[in-house]
Specification:
Blueprint (H helix, E strand, L loop, with lengths): L8 H11 L29 E3 L1 E5 L3 E5 L7 H4 E2 L2 E5 L2 H4 L7 H5 L7 E5 L5 E7 L2 E10 L1 E5 L2 E3 L3 H16 L7 E7 L7 E7 L11 E4 L1 H4 L11 H9 L3 H24 L1 E2 L7 E5 L6 E5 L5 E2 L1 H6 L20 H29 L3 H15 L11 E3 L11 E3 L8
Antiparallel strand pairs: 1-6, 2-5, 3-11, 4-5, 6-7, 7-8, 8-12, 9-10, 11-12, 13-15, 14-17, 15-16, 18-19
Helix pairs in contact: 8-10, 8-11
Length: about 400
């Protein structure tokens, strides 16, 4: 992808999601695993496909919201029934909860989508053939993508809407998750989708180009000889490469993570998919956003900040998450953000732009120390998942023995 060739921001975002990730899925033994047919694969599939949908009547499901205003509700809530889009691969899953009851429902209109990098989250462009405001659906997908089976049950939908409300309260730059559709009445096994806006709250829908962070350092699937977006953006800005990386990426990511942690108790997962980088068409201006509110919550930090103690049912450290918070924070900060994203960025910057990794590490450590509040309880070494796939999606963290580079 060449900056000078860019046109429609939506098309650029789609292309970046699907095709600018070459070489970026190498951070774990399972990171490149995608249990999905070629027809719906982010790289090998068609440009668009249709999600089948069903009309779920009142009493057989629910439409959940939070306090974030959105113009998207009318697409999915119609009087006393809700529209339930379903990934085609999910319909073929024999163990799908309520499958027979689902297939007995009245069919809804086709929902035209394009896949994103993680396959089960999709860009929505049309409903019943009519163009709609661009947005995302995160779908129930009971097959394995990377390490985990990507079910989206009611407790997680409730969590995501709650976290989105907290991030909005804290003034975070993120893509708001504004609603969730649920099929079924079982409080834990019912499943559905999450509706996510395509621009940050308060952005006014500014027409900047947006790409996932991995698209800055990933290769182009169709044009492997093109320079990476990072190289092009640094040259266009006319800035010192180290300064560009520190001021526009490393610093904002660390500040966002720490601010959200202490203001809300939510531990964001800013890896290369969840971190979004925005840049203007004809100026050096850039911005950094976040997406995906399926995160862990620390009740101790919330209590220390005098925050509401009414919490979601799941992903609460020390309750259903039986891991010390220090290890969970190391997982999402040191491993997801540090190892998976920033280390990949640093390797490319060293190889192509002559930036010493130590320059970025030193800046990160100073930034972390300046914005941490109180006595630091992060562990002295990095924690990550062990190399075992377990039934039911359970996981275990182990001490890698590595010293953290980014704090």
């Amino acid at each position: 992808m060449i900056l000078g060739d860019l046109a429609d921001p939506g098309a650029v975002w789609e292309y970046a999601e699907r095709y600018l990730g070459v070489g970026t899925r190498s951070y774990s033994p399972f990171s490149a695993d995608l249990e999905i047919s070629d027809a719906y694969h982010p790289q090998r599939g068609a440009a668009r496909f249709d999600l089948p949908s069903f009309w779920v009547p009142e009493g057989q499901g629910a439409y959940l919201t939070n306090r974030i205003a959105s113009g998207l509700h009318g697409l999915y809530r119609h009087g006393d029934r809700i529209l339930l889009p379903v990934h085609p691969e999910t319909l073929t899953f024999a163990g799908l909860a309520g499958r027979d009851a689902l297939l007995a429902l009245a069919p809804g209109p086709p929902v035209r989508v394009a896949p994103s990098a993680n396959a089960r989250t999709v860009f929505v462009t049309h409903v019943d053939g009519a163009a709609v405001p661009p947005h995302f659906l995160k779908l129930h997908y009971p097959r394995r993508l990377s390490r985990f089976t990507r079910r989206l049950r009611r407790p997680i939908i409730e969590l995501q809407l709650w976290v989105a409300g907290e991030l909005a309260r804290a003034g975070t730059r993120f893509l708001p998750e504004v609603a969730g559709g649920v099929f079924g009445t079982d409080p834990t096994e019912s499943w559905g989708y999450v509706v996510r806006e395509a621009s940050p709250a308060g952005s006014g829908g500014a027409a900047a180009y947006t790409v996932p962070l991995f698209a800055l350092y990933g290769g182009d699937y169709h044009r492997p000889d093109d320079p990476t977006l990072l190289e092009q953006l640094v040259r266009r800005a006319g800035e010192d490469p180290a300064g560009f990386l520190c001021d526009r990426i490393v610093g904002p990511m660390i500040r966002m993570w720490l601010t959200v942690l202490f203001e809300t108790g939510c531990a964001l997962e800013p890896h290369g998919q969840n971190t979004l980088f925005a840049f203007a068409a004809d100026s050096p201006g850039t911005d950094l956003w976040y997406r995906d509110c399926e995160v862990y919550v620390d009740p101790v930090l919330r209590a220390a900040g005098g925050l509401d103690d009414r919490l979601p049912r799941v992903n609460i450290i020390s309750r259903d998450i039986q891991q010390p918070r220090e290890r969970v924070f190391s997982l999402v900060y040191d491993s997801f953000m540090g190892h998976h994203a920033l280390a990949s960025l640093a390797r490319l910057a060293q190889e192509r732009l002559g930036v010493a990794p130590g320059t970025l590490h030193d800046f990160a450590r100073r930034t972390f120390a300046r914005h941490w509040r109180g006595a630091c309880f992060m562990p002295p070494t990095v924690y990550y998942y062990d190399a075992v796939l377990r039934q039911g999606g359970t996981w275990r963290l182990v001490d890698t023995g590595r010293k953290p580079d980014w704090r």
